[in-house]
Amino acid sequence: MHILLTNDDGIYAPGLAALKESLSTLGKVTVVAPAVEQSGVGLSITYRHPIMAREEMMHGEFFGYAVLGSPADCVKMGVLEFCGERPDLIVSGINSGANIGINVLYSGTVAGAIEGAFFGITSIAVSQSMLTSPCYETTAARSATVIRQLLDEKPPTGSLWNLNFPHESTEGPKGLKFVAMGCNRQKELLEKRVDPRGKPYYWCGLEPIKGHKKDPGTDIEALQEGYATLTPLHFDLTEREQLQQYQEKTFNV
Q1: How far is the C-alpha of 131 from the C-alpha of 42, rounded, in Å?
Q2: pTM of the predicted protein model
Q3: C-alpha dihedral sign at 149, 152, 154, 157
Q4: 49 vs 63, 68, 77, 96, CA distance in Å?
Q5: So where are the chain's domains?
């Protein structure tokens, strides 16, 4: 099996290195990751100027390709150029911080997996809650275990998955739950500050757990309760019920 691995924290992120090591037990791994951090860029792509890329060495060995672009750019270039052959699986992560609730729509990590699903390749985003100091090696090993079991179930080719792990603890996750994506935000934070010259500036705070309502049966609730979560996603944003309702109406233009 050939796995394309990307992330949004950048090619030097410890979560990426740990995941590459663990995924190597499943097959060949090709790393194509942003040269600099791309958190929160969502599905942005580069098309108004050329994309630069370079081979990256670590510990005297070839590690992967560093791309001056977004996670979606990285997946495009991995599939079309650097993998040499069409990969069987795309994994994006390990993200430093949970990607749950509607933050999934902002996430560069999830966007990398969505881009993979656009290509019709089964894709998985992996994220780690950061309420305590993480052990990426442990999370990477758990990720590989979950991914192996998921692939054994033979999910539809091109399916899209979002895997989250709770904050690091001595007990570890209570288990894994298949849950829906939470869609209700409780609050949004915007903090106004003043710089030394008296000019205002702002910090926008997206709290991945505290900022959401604890909807029953969702990734938010399960992660808060100490479970790892796995959510099947889809990039078709059509609201089917309303579509059917309005298809029966006639509007003048």
Answers
A1: 23
A2: 0.93
A3: positive
A4: 26, 11, 15, 29
A5: 2-183+215-236
Across all residues in the chain, what is the average pLDDT? 94
Cβ neighbours of residue 216 closer than 8 Å, sequence gap 6 or more: none
Task: Kindly provide the b/e burial profile for residues 164-202, where b requires at least 16 CB atoms within 10 angstroms of the residue's own CB.
Answer: bbbbbeeeebeebbebbbbeeeeeeeeeeeeeeeeeeee
Task: Report yes or no: 117 and 124 within 8 Å, Cβ to Cβ.
Answer: no
Structure tokens at 92: 């994006």
Between 117 and 216, the more confident residue is 117
How many whole angstroms separate alpha carbon 154 and alpha carbon 150? 7
Pairing, β 160-165 against β 228-233: antiparallel
The 3-class SS string of 93-130 reads EEEECCCCHHHHHCCHHHHHHHHHHHCCCCEEEEEECC
How far apart are the C-alpha atoms of 100 and 113, rounded to whole Å?
14
Pick the CATH number of 2-183+215-236 from 3.30.930.10, 3.40.50.720, 3.40.1210.10, 3.40.1410.10: 3.40.1210.10
- Given a cut of 60, whether residue 210 has pLDDT beyond it is no
The residue assigned the tokens 């977004």 is: 70
Which amino acid makes up residue 216? P
Strand 123-128 versus strand 160-165 pairing type: parallel
Question: How far is the C-alpha of 188 from the C-alpha of 207, rounded, in Å?
Answer: 8
Whose structure tokens read 């390709």?
65
- Looking at residue 215, its pLDDT comes to 78
Distances (CA, A) of 219 to 136, 178, 201, 215: 20, 8, 33, 8
Residues 28-52: pLDDT tens digits?
999 999 999 999 999 999 999 999 9
